[in-house]
Design a protein that fits this description.
The complex is a heterotrimer, with two copies of chain A (194 residues) and one copy of chain B (261 residues).
Chain A lengths: L2 H14 L6 H5 L8 H14 L5 E6 L2 E6 L4 H7 L9 H13 L4 H8 L5 H9 L3 E6 L7 E5 L1 H6 L28 H5 L6
Helix pairs in contact in A: 1-3, 5-7
Chain B lengths: L9 E2 L2 E2 L14 H7 L3 H12 L8 H15 L4 H22 L14 H22 L27 H15 L9 H20 L1 E3 L10 H16 L3 E5 L6 E5 L5
Antiparallel strand pairs in B: 1-2, 3-5, 4-5
Helix pairs in contact in B: 2-5, 3-4, 7-8
The chains are: A alpha+beta (194), B mainly alpha (261).
């Protein structure tokens, strides 16, 4: 098969797919085995072919998919009656804690945020398919341990957790200044800000 | 990155610029404040970042009074939240008192009493910023749209599966779009009334006319009787059924509103 | 706007659309009025551009859409085989409204969704046996009142409607804030521009 014909098939299949398609599955489109390297090369070429378009081919955690470029968002929205929900800060903070501290229990999240985490927040994230239970901690009550899913990575355009935005190093911006009325040793013993 | 520039609370969509210097918040704004701040850590962080408070400089008396006002206002609404604020107030007072009391020289390894609070504040701030960054990533369905073209199907159609969470998700989308929060407080009780409304209508479709009592099933308990009555009243209010009685103590008949004509 | 740029936008919008898009709606993509003729000419050009691909742009009664060519069907089905189909957001929202607000007319649903409810959505749910007509409201037009059925409860593994997630819980996880890009302090916090 000519590369052009293979790309033609890959393009149609990926445009029609409902979810990101793993490389191995794309291989099943062809009767003869093209090999992973050849397939990957074709996909890179296809991505290049689309580089000037308003739609792009991206390689996500669970595979390849076509999606509109972010700058097209306002235009695409004009044709869509449906608008997806924006999640509240409570939901996003819970998601961030699970993403960066996973696996995490509800108790871990509550400790960190200093407030209770309602069941509906967990449900919102589970319902979206962004988190799931990966086990239970061996402590009283055996609380569920939550972790982020592949869908979470896919939906945020990430290939792996390593691509999450790096955590800000903010330890330096709050310092323990000596209290005005404090005893001399408060200044003398440097505070251990963990 | 300067922490002071980080987005803070928002009230009715407007960024909250500053609190009054004495920390006093009018009682009618308390609810708004509670929605703006996500708990005591968030509020403390705000105070420190925005007002340049050193934790140690906070005058404990007004802060405590403020916290207690919160608790009072919240008592009817959300006790759990109130408890969290109260715990934080107690923690602040404990820290302050420990700093003021004369102490014997500390063993080297003993921590500054403020260290644990600061550690928690920093960890929380880090996650708060991380949440903002996650929210800023292009999100499928919100900022970027996956392409999935139509395929002409010849094979037998496979039916989509729907989970309860999918319904919740769908409603969430509706809420967001239509700002319906204020208008639709549907409780479990109301939902059971709605379920019985459908049930009554379905029975009236089969039987055209039923005697009032026939619509009730005493065997299912008092709760169901009450809900059925509420359903009938609601149906009558929405003029979906006609309830008629020819004279006092005569049988009461119920029929679909359109069948009556 | 250059024709190439207009085609780029039309292409992305049509690829991202979930249903055929009428000409008039496509016009809404552009701030200035292109006129029906110019729009139709652009679409014909776009169709020509795609003529060698395995995906085609077609003009149906209800509007324009991209679809895979018939001969591609067996190939793309290979990728879709194990993937469960999903209802569109429009169908799910309609179902949610009927479940929570029953008995409800099509007008009730349209009021809540803020957009029209096509007959095909109602048919899909009726065909599935999940909703049926339980009466008619005594208002002009005598609209049908829809309610969920026992099959609906069975298929979702519910005993009664009371087991649906309470709406006030769902409401707590939704934020009604404006999009971050529109906020004044977005400039002050650099990492916010997606």
């Amino acid at each position: 098969m000519l590369p052009a014909e293979a790309k033609r098939i890959l393009e149609a299949a990926l445009l029609a797919a409902t979810e990101p398609v793993p490389l191995a599955e794309l291989g099943r489109l062809f009767d003869q085995d093209l090999g992973q390297d050849a397939l990957r090369r074709l996909l890179e070429e296809l991505r290049e072919d689309w580089s000037e378009r308003a739609v792009e081919l991206v390689n996500l955690a669970s595979g390849w998919r076509f999606q509109t470029r972010p700058e097209m968002q306002p235009l695409v929205e004009r044709l869509r009656a449906e608008r997806p929900p924006r999640y509240s800060r409570a939901v996003m903070e819970t998601l961030a804690i699970i993403a960066y501290r996973q696996p995490a229990t509800r108790g871990d999240i509550e400790n960190l945020r200093g407030v209770g985490v309602s069941a509906s927040i967990i449900q919102a994230l589970e319902g979206r398919g962004w988190i799931d239970v990966v086990g239970h901690r061996d402590t009283p009550g055996r609380p569920a341990l939550y972790a982020t899913t592949r869908t979470f990575l896919d939906d945020l355009g990430l290939h792996s957790l390593e691509e999450l935005p790096p955590l800000e190093e903010i330890a330096k911006t709050v310092t323990l200044e000596p209290a005005p009325a404090a005893e001399p040793e408060a200044a003398a013993s440097p505070p251990n800000s963990a | 990155m300067s922490g002071a520039a980080a987005p803070v609370a928002r009230i009715y969509g407007e960024p909250l610029i500053e609190l009054p210097a004495d920390l006093y918040i009018p009682p009618d704004a308390l609810e708004v404040m509670l929605e703006a701040f996500h708990g005591p850590l968030d509020l403390l962080l705000y105070l420190i970042r925005r007002q340049n408070f050193n934790i140690l400089d906070i005058a404990m008396a007004p802060l405590t009074r403020q916290y207690l006002e919160y608790v009072e206002a919240m008592r009817s609404k959300n006790l759990e939240l109130a408890a969290e604020y109260l715990v934080m107030a107690a923690m602040l007072m404990e820290i302050k008192s420990r700093l003021l009391l004369p102490r014997p020289p500390l063993p080297a390894e003993e921590q500054d009493p403020r260290a644990e609070l600061v550690r928690r504040l920093l960890e929380y701030e880090q996650m708060k910023l991380a949440a903002q960054q996650l929210d800023a990533l292009p999100q499928a369905g919100r900022d970027v749209f996956p392409i999935s073209l139509f395929i002409e199907r010849t094979a037998a159609e496979r039916l989509p599966q729907v989970r309860v969470q999918d319904l919740a998700e769908a409603w969430r989308g509706l809420l967001y779009r239509a700002c319906l929060t204020a208008h639709h407080h549907i409780t479990r009780e109301e939902l059971s009334v709605r379920e019985h409304m459908s049930r009554v209508l379905r029975r009236l479709q089969e039987h055209r006319v039923l005697e009032f009592a026939e619509l009730f099933d005493p065997a299912r308990g008092v709760a169901v009787l009450v809900v059925t009555l509420l359903a009938l009243l609601e149906l009558a209010r929405e003029t979906l059924i006609d309830i008629t009685q020819s004279e006092c103590y005569a049988p009461i008949y119920v029929r679909l509103a359109h069948a009556a004509r």
